[in-house]
Design brief:
The protein has 13 helices and 18 strands. The chain has 363 residues and is an alpha/beta fold. The strands form 4 sheets. Strands 3, 5, 6, 9, 10, 17 and 18 form a 7-stranded mixed β-sheet that branches. The chain has a 6-stranded parallel β-sheet with strand order 13-12-11-14-15-16, sandwiched between helices. It has a 3-stranded antiparallel β-sheet with strand order 2-1-4, with no helix packed on it. The longest helix is centred in the middle third of the chain and has 11 residues.
Length: 363
């Protein structure tokens, strides 16, 4: 595979293309064009890799077909806007939401944008995504957010997916409130996003549970009051010791495997809330024989990205420093290396990786 520059810069671009499980390639692809009057074409300046992209790479997401350009996170500049796009024009700096929403269907009217009848999670799934020099954004008026020219691209790109997921699926679904004891099971990027956003609601304690000491120490630096390494299988006992056998008010499951879901069920206090945030590919066991009489609330959801405007204001004001989640930076020409780094996070000491797309470096 060659990473050399495109032969015709007016019609082609570099893009990261999925060709089946464990098969990615950086290729020359045709630049996207407007298909509907509500579309916009965005020149990507910064993108990122999500844990969901790794699920795609493993073959766990059958909706992603051979030849799909991956990615659903990005910041860029409007290159072209369709005639029906009212809120944006050529040259505007924008944040791309992972969620495509028409704004008109029954689900959108209920603010369930992830279930939009004409959208949902489409970028890098059903349509070509953001890990490229250009991307087509359907329903641009609802799928983009205007950014001030001086906002940091890296801080903003964390709002495409990671931060709204942590806030909506973790903190808000768990109904974190002042004085709560919160446990977050999983110290990856989305778990740390829940950690950052949970602090906005003044819990008394935030316990982070994980098996990677580097990430646990990062969690401590980001505000965790207690960290627990679950590698020895004694996480439940340690949580119960810390809480004097009371358990936690909120348990946020941020991994998506049976073992972490079991921890969440085992440490929740009567009247508590379990917020499932992890992507589960296999069944888990729900212990209703223990929970049925405990007034437990269990929530599941997809991120709708309805909180993005609020998060953007907090980043712009300096109240929320999302760049703390970034560990590695790459050029688009190095995106295969970026995937390797992210897929081997423990070995490479990686959290979020960002990819700069301001011109591919020839190698």
């Amino acid at each position: 595979m060659s990473n050399s520059s495109s032969k015709d810069n007016t019609t082609t671009m570099k893009a990261l293309v999925f060709h089946g499980p464990n098969n990615l390639a950086l290729e020359d692809r045709p630049r996207p064009t407007l298909k509907e009057s509500t579309d916009a074409i965005v020149r990507i300046t910064t993108t990122s890799i999500c844990g969901t992209d790794l699920h795609i790479l493993k073959g766990d997401v059958p909706t992603v077909e051979d030849g799909r350009i991956l990615g659903h996170e990005g910041v860029g500049i409007i290159e072209e806007a369709g005639s029906s796009v009212l809120n944006f024009k050529k040259g505007d700096k924008v944040l791309i939401s992972l969620i495509t929403s028409c704004g008109r269907c029954d689900f959108c009217k209920r603010a369930m944008y992830s279930h939009c009848s004409n959208g949902g999670w489409r970028l890098g799934n059903h349509i070509d995504g953001t890990q490229a020099e250009y991307v087509r954004i359907p329903y641009a008026d609802t799928g983009l957010y205007r950014l001030s020219p001086d906002i940091d691209d890296e801080a903003a790109v964390m709002l495409s997916c990671n931060m709204p997921t942590g806030l909506e699926c973790g903190t808000l679904s768990g109904q974190v409130k002042p004085g709560d004891t919160v446990a977050i099971i999983g110290a990856g990027p989305v778990g740390l996003a829940a950690l950052l956003t949970a602090q906005l609601y003044s819990p008394a304690e935030i316990i982070i549970i994980g098996h990677n000491n580097d990430r646990l120490e990062i969690a401590r630096s980001l505000g965790a009051t207690q960290i627990i390494n679950s590698a020895d299988g004694k996480a439940v006992e340690q949580v119960m010791e810390l809480t004097k056998n009371a358990g936690v008010d909120v348990a946020i499951e941020a991994v998506g495997v049976a073992a972490t879901f079991d921890i969440a069920q085992s440490i929740i206090t009567p009247g508590g809330r379990i917020a499932n945030m992890g992507v589960h590919g296999k069944p888990v066991e729900l212990h209703l024989e223990k929970l049925w009489s405990s007034n437990i609330t269990l929530t599941t959801r997809l991120v709708d990205a309805g909180t993005t405007p609020m998060l953007l204001k907090m980043v712009e004001s300096g109240r929320l420093d999302t760049k703390k989640l970034i560990s590695h930076r790459f050029e688009l020409s190095e995106i295969l290396k970026a995937y390797d780094t992210y897929a081997n996070a423990a070995k490479k000491h990686a959290l979020k990786v960002v990819i700069k797309c301001q011109g591919v470096i020839a190698t």
